[in-house]
Amino acid sequence: MKVVIGEDGLDPAVQAYLDGLSRSELHELVLTLVECSETVRRTLEAVADLAGDRRGAAGEDPVRRAAALLSAPKGYEDCESYDFEYGEYTDNGYAADILDFLDELEALIDDGGADAAAPPLRMIITRLRPDLYEGRGDRDGLMERACDRAAELYARACREGRPDVGALAAWLAQFRLEVLSCPELALTDFLPALGEEGLAVYRGAVEAAPQTSARLVLQVELADADGDVDRAVRLLGGEDPRYASIVERLLAAGRGEEAMAWLDRAVAAGRVGRRRFWDPPENADIVRRRLDAPRAIELYIGAGRPDDAVALAHRLFREDPGTDAYDLLLDTAERLGRRDREREAALTWIDGRNWRDADVPIALALHEGDVERAWRAADRWGADDAWQRLADAAPQPRPADAMRLYEEAVTRTLGRRSGRETSQRIAQFAVRLRDIAAAADEAVAAETADAGAGAGPADEGGGAVGGAGAGRRDGAYTKHFRVWLDNLRDSCRHRPTVHDELRRAGL
């Protein structure tokens, strides 16, 4: 079947170029045109349909098989397939069918058909990328798995086949400049296929592109491929230095003094520690700005700079005084034989601050198992979000105060809202109050017994009590709880859901 291009036909030079292309090169050219033009795609599909009778079943042609699979309805395109329980669209087998087809293409490559497998693999990568990038229809991760596997197989097909290296290089550069993931295509996987000729085309396409974060990644990648550490450092050390990537490259090149100098700069710039949500996105290890704190401390210790290691640990702790930073500080000090001294310094700093609330001091004290210290912090600054952790601490040295925190929480909850969910929360708080009271009475009874004072804490209002008071008299804490519970029921006499949830909780 002949398709007429125009009255004068093709330019002779173009005709000669096409006549000189191999089957695989023609495949690559056609796919490139299809990706660039919707009109070309539709024309090609119409021509393929007309040729169907002569070419046999569509399933015999990998390209047509791929086109048919990729044109099938996707689960997330149908609003009726939405799963309201999970908040996502159900899987209609779209990605699974593609994965099955990839098995066939892998077998084709194994049988020496790399050139035949490459075009449909590239088609799959290109057509799946937008959906994967936007996170659509991938509840079980099948789309991501299909795209990643197609990328892996495509790189292999290019290495084992005979691609048009110029066309491959141009496509690879364009693809990676547009988006650096979904799926990830590594230059190193394509270098054997590109050769020097293809790499030159790829390099030219990268250098001609506008300066973006994507271009920077590709430039650094090329410098790494060339073994040019100095160029990589120049690229990474611009207006917004990628400290972590610079340090690691210099260390790998045996340039330790330069690496430590860049580490010092990173510390001064506040680029050591956990990545913050406001930090710009990074691409794996290629353009990382922030060094991991344990790695930085390890480098300082390894370089014989223990004071700098401890100073950094203290700084990170003061910037974000959470349990992770606290543990890092103590672990660092322990390695240097300075744990007690640095721990005392950290706690002195905590005690010397004017905290808005005691949440941080409470969290650190409970992390160390020092409940008394946590209560002292609460007395000084007040417990906010950490109140429940403090009240639930066991063994509980101040049960009356713990019960008070729960009672105050019930009062706050009642005043804010009503409804079933609120009633359930109140019932949960009441159960914890009962349990704290019972544990406190049991502790009093045990202490009295150990002292040889007979049966039960008479000065606390009666005998010891179990959780349900089974055959034993209530202690002072449980008596207090029962009075509070009666008052709660009375205050909620017009809120039947509260009474209902209390009964459900066994109260």
Write the layout of secondary structure elements.
Blueprint lengths: L11 H8 L3 H14 L1 H13 L1 H4 L6 H9 L11 E2 L4 E2 L4 H17 L3 H20 L8 H19 L4 H14 L8 H22 L4 H14 L2 H8 L6 H10 L3 H13 L24 H10 L3 H14 L3 H13 L3 H14 L6 H9 L3 H11 L5 H6 L6 H18 L3 H31 L25 H16 L4 H9 L3
Antiparallel strand pairs: 1-2
Helix pairs in contact: 2-3, 2-7, 5-6, 5-7, 6-7, 6-8, 7-8, 8-10, 9-10, 10-11, 11-12, 12-13, 13-14, 15-16, 16-17, 17-18, 19-20, 22-23, 23-24, 23-25
Overall body shape: elongated
Low-confidence stretches: 1-7, 50-59, 78-87, 454-471
Distance between the termini: 85 Å
- Mean pLDDT level: 83
- Helical proportion? 55-70%
H-E string: HHHHHEEHHHHHHHHHHHHHHHHHHHH
Structural class: mainly alpha
The total beta strand count reads 2
- Figure out the total of helices: 25
Placed side by side, the strands forming the largest sheet appear as: 1-2
For the biggest sheet, the summary is: 2 strands, antiparallel
Radius of gyration: 34 Å
What percent of residues are in strands? under 5%
List keywords for this structure.
507 residues; mainly alpha; 2 strands; 1% strand
Please describe what this structure looks like.
The protein is an all-alpha fold and 507 residues long. Among the domains are: 1-70 and 96-185, no CATH class; 358-393, no CATH class; 398-504. The protein has 25 helices and 2 strands. It has a two-stranded antiparallel sheet. A hairpin with a 4-residue loop joins strand 1 (82-83) and strand 2 (88-89). Helix 13 packs antiparallel against helix 14. It is elongated and about 110 Å long. The relative contact order is 0.04.
